[in-house]
Amino acid sequence: MDMAAQEKPEQGKAPKELEGWRRERGEMLQRIELLRRQKICYICRDLETGEVFGKQHIIFENDRFRAVLDPYPRVEGHTIVVYKPHRDDVSQLSYDEVGPVFQMCIRVVKAIKSALKAEKVYLLTMCDGRVSHLNFQLLPRYAGNLMGYRRLSARLYPLEDGAEAAALIRSALLQRGSDSQSRE
To answer: Sheet containing 65-69: which strands, arranged edge to edge?
Structure first.
C-alpha cells in the first residue's frame, strides 16, 4: 500500500463509481440531517445501532472509544477517534476525562505515523451544528502533501484499501500498547 502518494481526488475514477460514492455520501448526510432536526445525536445513534454510517473500518474499540477510518477521507489514513460518552465539545470534558481522551488520540497518532509512514498527523475537532458529539479528526501528512490548514480544503475521495489501512494501524496500535509501559 503506497501511503506516501499524493492526495487522491476524484480524478481517475469511473463516473459510475463516483456516482455511487456521491449517492451513498448524500444519503448518509440526509440521515444525519434528519436526526439533527429531531435533536438526536447521530454519532450516539450510530454507536447504538450502526445505522448512520454503515460498515466502518474499525481500528480500535472499547467501552469508551471508537477509532475508525473516515469513510470520506481527505487523505489516506484519515481517522476519526470518537469518545463514546456524549460530550458536545472539548469544553464539556471533565479534568478526569481529558487525560484518557488525549492519551487515546496520541496512541492512534503514533500508530498512524508508524504504520503508514506519515510525517505528521494533524489532530483537530470541529464539533458544530445543532447536535454535536465530540470526536477527533486525525489527518496524516505525507511527503509532498498539502501542509497546515490547507489540509482541511483537500478534496474528499472514496476510501480505498480501508481494510488494509485499518489492519496496519491496528497492528501498530496493538504493538505500541504492548510495549508502551516500557517506552513511555
So the answer is: 58-61, 65-69, 79-83, 135-141, 120-124
The CA-CA-CA angle for residues 99, 93, 184, to 5°, reads 10
Grid coordinates representing 162 are 480501508
DSSP annotation of 64 reads S
Top CATH class, 55-183? alpha beta
pLDDT at residue 13 greater than cutoff 70: no
Distance CA 60, CA 166 (A): 9
Percent of the chain surpassing pLDDT 90: 62
Closest CA to 47 of 147, 134, 168: 134
What's the rounded Cα separation, in Å, for the pair 63 and 85? 9
For range 92-119, the mean pLDDT: 97
**How high is the pLDDT of residue 22?**
87
Domain boundaries, the chain: 55-183
**Nearest Cα to 108, choosing from 95, 122, 96, 97?**
122
Q: What gap in Å lies between CA 114 and CA 1, rounded to an integer?
A: 14
Query: Under a CB-based contact definition with an 8 Å cutoff, are residues 14 and 20 in contact?
Result: no
